[in-house]
């Protein structure tokens, strides 16, 4: 009976759905489409919330104390002292939890109440999302969200196609094509046919695999296979499709989106967890003390107390017949009495104060104007108030890429055409390259004009005669100045011409005398001033908008390449005066082109001039961009719009459009473009589609009698397929590729091949034969494609910038410098992720190697990880220069340790005129020097080694202190993991090996990962490394990762607010994360730790007085102080000063916190509050309590006043000790406070005054039992002398210890404070203090590859399936065209004859075998650099160096051959 039949097992592993049949589907009890993320309801809130709150150990502890205080026989304190604070804490927490849950309810309601068109009884009705059921047929309209996981039935497009955007799922905004079954296309949008559709779907059970779906459709007696290409997932958006119909397969929590959404976890900080542990320790300590005192009381009562029952009668419940029994019962009761008396060691006010501090700190984050993003009017927001100090302890950051690091905006940045580079502009006053970087600085011009701008910025300057003022709003582009490489100069005629390096290859070089008169200096002006056209003849349109002002301050020191423009002293002085100004540089005016895009910006006018002058090579270049793609064009509201599968293709086609080569439309067999106003129509013969193996795509076109193949792809792939005889062109283009890649740009190489009719027909027949082959079809097709994609002519190179958000490289550099490891988890392709890694400086050329894990099986992944581990061992074994650096340090005792670090780091980056030397094994070694590491006693900051790194430690050197070399293991490598390999890496048997490699890498990039994999990676690090993690993202695909991390940060981006709603903190830009962590996070942690140390000190000093007094009161649980003083001590007398400390305290300013990221490291190690610091505070408090009690006790014991009154009574002693305690607290917190504000002064000194006022009011107005005790004591000089001696005895050791640390072992913050006080702003090594980062050159000879493309679009285009309308006749209509078109005809007719394919390896190409990590290209040939001036040109072919300046001196082989890595 217990065994299950085969059909039953099958039913458990499959899901059966029948369309339009509610009764059939109801039997399976599938979830509906209702979504619930809230935790409570109106009825369950109170019990569930209280249950959750009493799970906190502290709340449960105070609840037990409250119960004890309700028993009169054992309580000497009123229960009100515990009840009111406990109720207050529970109420505040409940209100906050209720507010958060209400927000979740509102979010759920908004989603559940969205409208969806659903078929009911043959009619289309509007229903709420929550009412959609499994099996319903629903209609989706263009730009509408998909309500549930749906099987596509029919669409408005031919062949059942539709296009979706999956940004909510994987962060990608490029369109993806879905296609329904051919058999269901006929259903169309006929409601009767759709209602009668009764197909039965058998599919897999709900799971979280976004890219996998297996199922079968049974309809009309036939079975049809279903896969992921026929499923629309919840969260996707329908694009470029008027409508589509589908049947719901998964709804609600069963959808793949919800399956990937991690559960909301209760988050607590490391400080909270440590507090819970400490409280357990304190409770055990309290129980031990109470037990000790109970035993002492029983002994005292048994031997002494029994004789004084006349004066100290026993309670009625105490048995008096047998003394030992009575003494034992008294001891037992005293145990509980002392538990109540000593409970102030951990008062409830501690948790009240912690919550208040966190609450106020959250508002400080919300109010920070430095994290305000004006473009979207968005402030940073702390969405939770319980995690602030955790921001100061982050060890790992997990970041999404698209929309988080980047804007997901591709811009055509630079290009190389026929060996000439375009896109650079130089500053004539410095002779250095101007890099154009957008900065969102908008200023109002004094002259207003409503004339529209041509490209989103100020329009080009008109002729001087008209001279109208520029438009009122100007977007300023800051220009970062770098050493001159390839560039353009601005002449007086307003043109930008190539610099000498470029002109060498196109025209004879000009003499100095010929060149100088023709140059026009660009004027400098600050933004915000009125711009005029006063210069004679007008400036170039690129510079008429304003001057060029190089920001000197805060940037790297400029280096002048040999022979470049040299700066005179006068020029340096002039530049220094304008260092605070931004450069305003105007883009080229494209307004003559009616199809130009207003937001397209290009600053090199020479390229537009070449196009307009009908220069042949530029026309071929842009014609290729306009024809070789899979973009779809459509007209919306009279405007031509493109829908591209990838933003890369969109940027290239848009660039061609702006330069006059406008892609207009396509049919399955034709492409129409408009060239300089004239239409050209090409017959589309073939599209050789892109895939990840080919890394290129080609189109074969015919126009007239000419036939041409256009190809674009990765540069190494294209270079291998070029014909011989163009070595010089390849060399110059390779130099440009190196330069573009060094700037972090995504590059593609372009090539063409002229074909003859006979050759093409022969190739076509063999291609069709291979396409119909049933055996090894893909392999045969690839061989056929290889054949025609050969013997090509190099056309040029494109360089696209995947625009990073502002400040991302600098922020990442500073965060890494602070000791935080950064992992990027993205759904993008490997090439895209790696290119962004270089752009944002997460990957740099200082890395010895970049490991790529892309194995498809466990064995392959394990083999790769094992080989990488061996590579790391080899690297560590042959690490160069370690002992040499040590010798250099000893030989120069005055050298700052970080100077040695930089010397060691750049050991192989010497002057270019040195002869090349054989390189040692791996190239980089980052070495830091730490002095004696045993000094751990300094408080409030990191150990002194950090100070030595920053400022040096001359005293230690002079004393003969030995320096130890500590090699940073995490700076040598980076790891890139593909999603399918990550599945194996996260398996239990592999995760330790994966972590072993990853933990030794500076950066880790995981690409093609699902949302759930992101969460699993975070969970792995949390579990295995016990590290504090932060996840940051902007889309719904990041929600599970954000929920899994200790801290979740959402970015208010382009992909909705799902990430923000699930986050703990929200910011508008990634760069604000730097300030959130290094300033607010560090301050919050520093303040909380200082607050806790002082709080425990003052409470132990207060409470342990009872312990010393118990030795003199027979352990009777008699209190030293007035019970009212005990009740209000933490509430009125000492709460406000310590709250002010926790809210406003800071050791250094926010500016210094950002400039010195190493200040963050104490939080990483939990140095400011830990068990050791807690014990130190306890011992300090115990010592204080001992001195506080014994000195007044010794003075007042048997004491008599001058008037003969006895002053040795209990109340006088209690009042004196209490007063000295308050005075000591005031003195101690004054010494504790580093940053004084008005609030600190008011609370500290006010609390001291408030004590005397309140004591007088309570005793004299209300009539307290201690009335007159303090007043009488203060009248005697003995009181004042006693107070002075006691306070001095308590303060002197603290002062001495602080001065000892400050003078001999100052922390990093101490040194920075001292320097700030002396007004000395030290520009120390960048290892500790970062300057503003600019884009750094990369020494790679292989460019970054830009083609985030999906295979299959070419097939869809040529088959006609992707077209909106099929043409009546596929025959190609030929037209004659214009004169310009005839030139193309002539060129096509004169097709190049066959040229023998060269076997030489092209310049700069290399292969990297990452499986063995062996570099095979150490002696590769590089061509001479084409873009360095004649005076300073490096002879790269002779010395083995390519472009990139001195950076290429690294002995290691470049590790950026990311296109040919074979794993």
Account of the 3D structure:
The protein has 1463 residues and is of the alpha+beta class. The protein is built from 47 helices and 43 strands. The relative contact order is 0.11. Residues 1-10, 439-583, 881-970, 1320-1343 and 1364-1463 have low confidence and may be disordered.
Topology, pairings included?
Blueprint: H1 6-13, E1 15-18, H2 22-26, H3 45-53, H4 57-69, H5 80-112, E2 115-120, E3 123-128, E4 137-141, E5 149-155, E6 161-165, H6 167-170, E7 175-179, H7 191-196, E8 200-203, E9 215-219, E10 222-226, E11 231-232, E12 237-239, E13 243-250, H8 256-259, H9 270-303, H10 323-341, H11 348-366, E14 381-382, E15 396-399, E16 406-417, E17 420-422, E18 425-427, E19 432-444, E20 473-482, E21 488-490, E22 496-498, H12 500-503, H13 512-515, H14 569-577, H15 605-612, H16 616-627, E23 632-636, E24 639-643, H17 647-658, E25 661-667, E26 670-675, E27 678-688, E28 696-703, E29 706-713, H18 715-719, H19 727-742, E30 746-755, H20 757-771, H21 777-788, E31 793-804, H22 808-817, E32 821-825, H23 830-839, E33 849-853, H24 858-877, H25 882-891, H26 897-905, E34 927-930, H27 944-951, H28 954-958, E35 964-967, E36 973-978, H29 979-985, H30 991-998, E37 1003-1007, H31 1011-1025, E38 1029-1033, H32 1039-1044, E39 1047-1051, H33 1058-1061, E40 1065-1067, H34 1072-1110, H35 1123-1133, H36 1135-1144, H37 1150-1155, H38 1161-1164, H39 1171-1196, H40 1210-1232, ...
Parallel strand pairs: 15-32, 15-38, 30-41, 32-37, 33-36, 36-37, 38-39, 39-40
Antiparallel strand pairs: 1-8, 2-3, 2-4, 4-13, 5-11, 5-13, 6-7, 6-12, 8-9, 9-10, 14-40, 16-17, 16-31, 18-19, 19-20, 21-22, 23-24, 25-26, 26-27, 27-28, 28-29, 29-30, 30-31, 34-35, 42-43
Helix pairs in contact: 3-5, 4-5, 5-11, 9-10, 11-34, 11-36, 16-17, 20-21, 22-34, 24-30, 25-26, 34-36, 34-39, 34-40, 36-41, 39-40, 39-43, 40-41, 40-43
């Amino acid at each position: 009976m217990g065994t299950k039949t085969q059909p039953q097992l099958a039913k458990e592993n499959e899901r059966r759905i029948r369309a339009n049949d509610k009764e059939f589907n109801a039997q399976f009890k599938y979830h509906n489409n209702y979504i619930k993320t809230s935790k409570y309801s109106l009825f369950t809130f109170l019990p569930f919330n209280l249950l959750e709150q009493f799970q906190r150990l502290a709340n449960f502890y105070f609840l037990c104390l409250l119960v004890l205080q309700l028993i009169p026989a054992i309580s000497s304190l009123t229960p009100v002292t515990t009840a009111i604070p406990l109720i207050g804490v529970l109420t505040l927490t409940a209100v906050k939890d209720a507010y958060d849950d209400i927000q979740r309810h509102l979010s759920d309601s908004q989603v559940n109440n969205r409208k969806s068109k659903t078929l009911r009884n043959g009619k289309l009705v509007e229903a709420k999302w929550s009412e959609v059921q499994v099996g319903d047929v629903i209609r989706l309209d263009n730009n509408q969200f998909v309500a549930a996981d749906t099987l596509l039935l029919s669409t408005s497009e031919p062949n059942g196609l539709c296009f979706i955007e999956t940004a909510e799922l994987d962060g990608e905004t490029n369109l993806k094509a879905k296609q329904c079954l051919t058999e269901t296309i006929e259903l169309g949008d006929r409601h009767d046919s759709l209602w009668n559709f009764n197909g039965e779907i058998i599919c897999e059970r709900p799971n979280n695999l976004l890219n996998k779906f297996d199922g079968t459709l049974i309809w009309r007696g036939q079975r049809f296979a279903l896969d992921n290409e026929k499923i629309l997932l919840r969260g996707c958006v329908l694009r470029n499709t008027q409508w589509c119909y589908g049947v719901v397969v998964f709804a609600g929590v069963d959808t793949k989106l919800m399956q990937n959404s991690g559960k909301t976890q209760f988050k607590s900080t490391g400080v909270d967890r440590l507090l819970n542990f400490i409280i357990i320790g304190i409770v055990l300590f309290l129980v031990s003390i109470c037990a000790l005192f109970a035993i002492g009381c029983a002994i005292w009562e048994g031997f002494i107390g029994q004789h004084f029952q006349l004066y100290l009668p026993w309670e009625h419940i105490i048995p008096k017949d047998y003394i030992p029994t009575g003494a034992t019962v008294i001891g037992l009761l005293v145990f509980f009495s002392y538990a109540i008396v000593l409970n102030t060691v951990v008062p409830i006010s501690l948790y009240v104060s912690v919550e208040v501090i966190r609450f106020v700190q959250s508002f400080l984050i919300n109010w920070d104007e430095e994290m305000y993003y004006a473009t979207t009017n968005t402030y940073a927001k702390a969405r939770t108030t319980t995690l602030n100090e955790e921001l100061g302890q982050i060890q790992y950051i997990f970041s999404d890429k698209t929309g988080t690091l980047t804007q997901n905006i591709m811009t055509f940045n630079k290009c190389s055409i026929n060996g000439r580079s375009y896109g650079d502009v130089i500053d004539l006053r410095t002779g250095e390259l101007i890099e154009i970087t957008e900065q969102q600085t908008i200023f109002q011009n004094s002259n207003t004009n409503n004339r529209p701008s041509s490209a989103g910025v100020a329009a080009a300057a008109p002729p001087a005669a008209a001279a109208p003022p520029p438009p009122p709003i100007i977007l300023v582009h800051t220009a970062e100045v770098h050493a001159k490489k390839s560039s353009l100069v601005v002449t007086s005629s307003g043109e930008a011409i190539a610099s000498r390096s470029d002109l060498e290859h196109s025209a004879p070089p000009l003499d100095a005398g010929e060149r100088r008169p023709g140059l026009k200096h660009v004027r400098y002006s600050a933004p915000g001033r009125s711009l005029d056209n006063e210069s004679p003849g007008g400036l170039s349109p690129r510079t008429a908008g304003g001057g060029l002002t190089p920001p000197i301050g805060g940037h790297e020191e400029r280096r002048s390449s040999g022979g470049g423009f040299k700066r005179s002293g006068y020029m340096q002085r002039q530049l220094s005066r304008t260092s605070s100004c931004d450069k305003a540089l105007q883009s080229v005016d494209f307004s003559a082109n009616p199809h130009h895009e207003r937001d397209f910006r290009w600053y090199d006018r020479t390229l537009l001039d070449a196009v307009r002058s009908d220069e042949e090579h530029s026309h071929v270049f842009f014609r290729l961009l306009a024809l070789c793609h899979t973009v779809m064009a459509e007209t919306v509201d009279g405007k031509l719009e493109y829908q591209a599968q990838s933003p890369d293709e969109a940027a290239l086609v848009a660039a061609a459009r702006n330069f006059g080569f406008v892609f207009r439309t396509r049919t399955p067999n034709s492409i129409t473009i408009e060239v300089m106003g004239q239409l050209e129509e090409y017959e589309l013969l073939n599209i050789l589609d892109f895939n990840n193996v080919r890394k290129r795509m080609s189109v074969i076109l015919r126009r007239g009698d000419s036939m041409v193949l256009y190809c674009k792809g990765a540069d190494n792939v294209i270079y291998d397929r070029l014909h011989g005889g163009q070595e010089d062109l390849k060399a110059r283009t390779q130099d440009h590729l190196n330069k573009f890649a060094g700037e972090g740009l995504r590059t593609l190489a372009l090539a063409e091949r002229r074909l003859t009719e006979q050759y093409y027909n022969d190739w076509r027949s063999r291609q069709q034969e291979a396409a119909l082959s049933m055996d090894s079809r893909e392999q045969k097709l690839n061989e056929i494609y290889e054949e025609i994609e050969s013997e090509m002519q190099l056309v040029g190179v494109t360089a696209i910038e995947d625009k990073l958000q502002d400040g991302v490289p600098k922020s990442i550099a500073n965060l890494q410098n602070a000791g935080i490891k950064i992992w990027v988890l993205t759904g993008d392709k490997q090439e895209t992720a790696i290119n962004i890694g270089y752009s944002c400086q997460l990957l740099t050329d200082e890395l010895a190697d970049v490991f790529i894990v892309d194995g498809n099986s466990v064995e392959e992944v394990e083999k790769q990880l094992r080989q990488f581990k061996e590579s790391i061992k080899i690297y560590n074994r042959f690490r160069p220069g370690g002992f040499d650096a040590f010798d250099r340090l000893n030989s120069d005792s005055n050298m700052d340790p970080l100077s040695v670090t930089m010397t060691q780091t750049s050991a192989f980056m010497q002057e270019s005129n040195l002869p090349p030397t054989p390189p040692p094994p791996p190239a980089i070694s980052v070495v830091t020097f730490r002095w004696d590491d045993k000094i751990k006693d300094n408080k409030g900051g990191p150990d002194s080694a950090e100070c030595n790194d920053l400022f040096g430690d001359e005293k230690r050197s002079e004393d003969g202190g030995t320096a130890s070399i500590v090699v940073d293991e995490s700076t040598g490598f980076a790891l890139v993991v593909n999603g399918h390999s990550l599945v194996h890496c996260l398996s239990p048997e592999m995760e330790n090996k994966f972590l072993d490699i990853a933990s030794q890498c500076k950066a880790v990039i995981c690409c093609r990962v699902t949302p759930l994999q992101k969460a699993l990676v975070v969970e792995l690090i949390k579990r295995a490394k016990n590290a504090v993690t932060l996840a940051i993202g902007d889309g719904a695909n990041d929600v599970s990762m954000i929920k899994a991390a200790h801290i979740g940060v959402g970015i208010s981006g382009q992909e909705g607010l799902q990430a923000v709603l699930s986050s703990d903190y929200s910011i508008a830009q990634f760069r604000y994360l730097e300030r959130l962590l290094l300033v607010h996070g560090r301050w919050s942690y520093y303040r909380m730790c200082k607050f806790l140390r002082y709080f425990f000190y003052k409470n132990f000093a207060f409470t342990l007085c009872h312990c010393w007094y118990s030795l003199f009161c027979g352990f009777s649980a008699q209190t030293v102080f007035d019970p009212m003083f005990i009740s209000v001590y933490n509430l009125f007398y000492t709460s406000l000063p310590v709250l002010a400390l926790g809210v406003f305290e800071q050791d250094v300013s926010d500016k210094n916190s950002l400039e010195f990221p190493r200040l963050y490291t104490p939080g990483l190690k939990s140095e400011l509050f830990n068990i050791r610091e807690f014990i130190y505070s306890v011992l300090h408090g115990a010592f204080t309590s001992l001195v506080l009690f014994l000195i007044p006790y010794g003075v007042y014991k048997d004491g008599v006043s001058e008037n003969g009154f006895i002053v040795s009574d209990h109340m006088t002693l209690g009042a004196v000790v209490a007063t000295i305690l308050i005075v000591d607290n005031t003195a101690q917190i004054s010494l504790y406070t580093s940053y004084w504000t008005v609030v600190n002064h008011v609370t500290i000194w006010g609390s001291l005054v408030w004590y005397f006022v309140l004591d007088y009011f309570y005793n004299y107005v209300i009539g307290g039992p201690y009335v007159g005790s303090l007043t009488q004591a203060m009248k005697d000089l003995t009181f004042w002398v006693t107070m002075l001696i006691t306070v001095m005895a308590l303060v002197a050791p603290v002062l001495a210890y602080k001065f000892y640390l400050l003078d001999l072992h100052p922390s990093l913050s101490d040194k920075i404070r001292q320097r700030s006080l002396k007004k000395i702003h030290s520009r120390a090594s960048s290892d500790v203090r970062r300057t503003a980062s600019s884009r750094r050159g990369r020494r790679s000879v292989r460019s970054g590859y830009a083609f985030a493309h999906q295979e299959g679009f070419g097939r869809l285009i040529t088959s006609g399936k992707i077209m909106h309308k099929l043409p009546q006749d596929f025959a190609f209509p030929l037209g004659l065209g214009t004169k310009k078109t005839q030139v193309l005809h002539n060129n096509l007719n004169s097709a190049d004859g066959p040229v023998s394919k060269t076997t030489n390896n092209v310049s700069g190409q290399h292969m990297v075998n990452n499986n063995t990590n062996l570099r095979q290209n150490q002696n590769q040939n590089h061509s001479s650099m084409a873009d360095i001036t004649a005076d300073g040109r490096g002879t790269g072919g002779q010395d083995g160096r390519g472009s990139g300046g001195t950076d290429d001196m690294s002995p290691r082989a470049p590790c950026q051959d990311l296109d040919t890595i074979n794993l």
